[in-house]
Structures are given as structure tokens and as C-alpha cells.
Amino acid sequence: MLFPLQTLFYKFVMLITKIIMFFVPESKPTVLSGEGSSVRLTETISHFGLKKPLIVTDAMLVKLGVIDPIVDSLKEKGIEPVIFDGVEPDPSFDVVDAGLAALKQGACDSVLAIGGGSSIDAAKVMALAGSNDKSPRELEGKFVAKNPALPLFAIPTTAGTGSEVTVAAVITDKTDSSKKLVLDPKIVPLAAALDPRIMEGLPPHITAATGMDALTHAVEAYIATFATKETDAYAVAATRMIVSNLETAYEDGSNMPAREAMALGSFYAGMAFTKAFVGYVHAIAHQFGGKYHTPHGLANSLVLPHILEFSKDKINDRLANLAVECELGQRHEGDSVLAQKFIDRIWAMNEAMGIPKTLDALQAHDIPEIAKAALHEAHYTYPVPKYMDMNQCQALLRKLLPS
Ligand SMILES: NC(=O)c1ccc[n+]([C@@H]2O[C@H](COP(=O)([O-])OP(=O)(O)OC[C@H]3O[C@@H](n4cnc5c(N)ncnc54)[C@H](O)[C@@H]3O)[C@@H](O)[C@H]2O)c1
Ligand SMILES: [Fe+2]
């Protein structure tokens, strides 16, 4: 257990953050959704009078032809995009620097991200650096930039991060293998398209991991002490959509209603956590991503049930609500039983989608360092419902060691 004074200090830090957040202007993208919406977004770009967007994507999506109909549609409207396809999973500042150079060299007037969270996050920081007198690295932190970002648009190709709606971008710092946050309402895209068709070819294991990332956003936002009636409504809707549709999308990627529900669920989860924040699951997952390059969603799915088990006594009522909303049980069963049903459902989803219980890359001798970094990130950034100390965090991490 943490000393009461320490807990009080972290709660004070969170109170200051909450007060600051109150004054942060709200920013939401215009959203187009449904099959074909990714191509329709080009009309929006055209209405803005933009002529030369930098398309930020990854080489795999170019190879699969995912961006082709969007590029063709832009060209039909007299818009000449410059394509930067150098994004890698968990993009580093080097990737953002390279994209920014392409943006400047091509004299681009806007940025269009087409890809998963990695492409959207990299694009967000390129768009912000493109209009500010700061390098991408100098933009790390909260509300650092002075000027609005270049006009930014997003077409998510995974249903996971919700980055198309959030104030955050996560960039890997190769110098210390950590993940750095750029937090700013200026990086919320002007408009986004949630197109299930573009997610059709997403392989099952990525569908599973990214979908569990979205579920983690919804659940962490719902149990966070920053949660409000508004974020609760988004988080509950997202949780329902994801719990009811993720396994279907995993089993049959061409099931458009399931893909559409996942795209919406991921978006609403993003709406919830951009205001209510996340918690220990993300704090630990970021360390796995930075150190071992564990895919972000996979890292979250491994940690989520453990954190819920740890926090259960403080959030029984919240988890019970989620269980009832997801039709896993009925009110008369009582909070404790319902909360356990919700956690068990997460274990079952992981198992049904082949998500392992342990992390192969995890080394016992890394655990103290990972725990220290995770607790630092969580205690100074996230409004967690129950505080954890070093011993508790290390004990939790040891459960993830490969046997
Ligand atoms: N900004 C935020 O609010 C936020 C929130 C959570 C996570 N993140 C960050 O987002 C990143 C992870 O993003 P992600 O989970 O979406 O994965 P990703 O963008 O790294 O993509 C994962 C893989 O899926 C492939 N892929 C993507 N869409 C595809 C499609 N439609 N068809 C076939 N293949 C496809 C990509 O080529 C890539 O190899 C991490 O860096 C994480 O830290 C950001
Ligand atoms: Fe996430």
C-alpha cells in the first residue's frame, strides 16, 4: 500500500490536471461514417479549398491498395496529394521528422492520415510541427504549441486507438525506449471517416489486439475518477458495441455490421478517454511497447483483466454497471458477482481470440524498471480509482512472465 500522504499528493496532482482540463477548449472532429465514407471525406477536403495534402500512411497499406480509391478521388477533384508511407508501428520522432521534411519539401497545405493509430499519431505531430516554430521533439508534453495545426483529417484503418478523436499522440523516443505523449486539443482532426470497408482486410490478430485497445480505453475511462455523465455515456456505448462485436469481426473480417460497430465503438471510446483519461493498463502497456515493441493493443489486453482484479474492491459498482449494460447478468445478482462476470468476460474474449496470458518478451530482471516507469506515468498523468505501490505493481507484472 502507498503511504496515505503519497496518495494524497498524487490526488492533488490530478486535481490540478482536472482544473487545467476544465479550461482546455473542446475540440471534436466532424465525422462521416459507413461504407464509402473514406472516399466521401475527399469532398470535405475539397470544400476546405485545400490543394496539396500530405497523406501519412504505412507501406503495408500502400501495398494492399487501401489508399488507392482515396488518392484517385482526391485527384478527380484537382487535389494533388504527396504520399509519405514511412510510418512504422509505434512511430518514433525520426519518422515524424521524415514526414515533416516531406511536408515542407512538397509545400503541403494540409495532412491526411490513413492508417492505424501509428499513422494518425505521426500525422498529428507533423501537422502541429508544420505550423509551429518547434521540432516534433519539442512538442512533447501538454499544450506546448502556440499555433493551430495545419488542417488535419483522419481515416482510421484499425478500430482501436480512437486517435481520430483524441487530444493525444504517442511517439516513441528511441533514446530511452520510452513512449512520449503530445497532448493538445490542436491535434484533434477537423474531420474523420469511419469506414468499415477499409478495415475489411485487417488480419484477425490485429483486429483482436486493436479491438481490445478500444475496450481498454472505454473501461479505463469509465473507472477513472475524471469520469463524468458525458464520458460515461460514451464509455458505456463503446463497451457494449465492442463486447458484442469484436469476436465476430475477429472471426469474419468481412462482416460489415460488426466492423462498423467496432469503428464506432473505438471512436466513442476515444471520446470517453480523451476527457476521462486512461489508467494503469496503459501506463504498463506503454512500457511494453517502448521496451519490447509489443503491439499496443496486445499489451493492453494482457494487462486489463489483472488491473481490474486489482482495482475491483473500489470499482465493483462501476464494473457491475458495465456487466448489466453488456447483458452479462441482472441487477439482483449484486455488484460483486456482476463485476466478476465482467472481468471473466474479458478473460474469455482474450482466450477466444488467441490472446496469450503471458508476454514472451518480458524479462524478470526488467520488472523493477518497468514498474517504476509505469507508476511514474500513471501517478502523474492518470486519475486511477485505486492506487498501487511498487510491490503490488511488480507482483502483477510477474504474473505476465512466460513460464
Ligand atoms: N493517440 C491516441 O489517442 C492513442 C491511443 C491508443 C494508442 N495509440 C498509439 O497508436 C499506436 C498503435 O496503433 P494501432 O493499434 O492502430 O496499430 P498500427 O497503426 O501500428 O497498425 C498495426 C499494423 O496493422 C496494419 N494495418 C492497419 N490497418 C490495416 C488494414 N486496414 N488492413 C491491413 N493491415 C492494416 C499496419 O500496417 C500495421 O502493420 C501505438 O503507437 C499506440 O501507442 C494512440
Ligand atoms: Fe490505447
Biggest sheet features: 6 strands, parallel
Strand line-up of the largest beta sheet: 1-9-6-4-2-3
What would the CATH topology of the largest domain be?
A: Dehydroquinate synthase-like, alpha domain
Bound molecules: nicotinamide-adenine-dinucleotide, fe (ii) ion
Poorly predicted runs: none
How far apart the termini lie comes to 27 Å
How much strand content do the residues show? 5-15%
Query: What share of the residues lie within helices?
Result: 40-55%
Rg to the nearest angstrom? Answer: 20 Å
Count of separate structural domains: 2
Keywords:
55% helix, alpha/beta, three-stranded mixed beta sheet, Rossmann fold, 403 residues, globular, binds nicotinamide-adenine-dinucleotide, Dehydroquinate synthase-like, alpha domain, 2 domains, binds fe (ii) ion
3D architecture notes:
With 403 residues, this protein is an alpha/beta fold. It has two domains: 174 residues, Rossmann fold, CATH 3.40.50.1970; 196 residues, Dehydroquinate synthase-like - alpha domain (Dehydroquinate synthase-like, alpha domain, Up-down Bundle). Helices cover 55% and strands 10% of the residues. The chain has 14 helices and nine strands. The strands form two sheets. Strands 1-9-6-4-2-3 form a six-stranded parallel β-sheet, sandwiched between helices. Strands 5-8-7 form a three-stranded mixed β-sheet. The longest helix has 30 residues. The structure holds nicotinamide-adenine-dinucleotide and fe (ii) ion. The site of fe (ii) ion has 6 residues, from helix 7 and helix 11. The site of fe (ii) ion (FE2) has 6 residues, from helix 7 and helix 11.
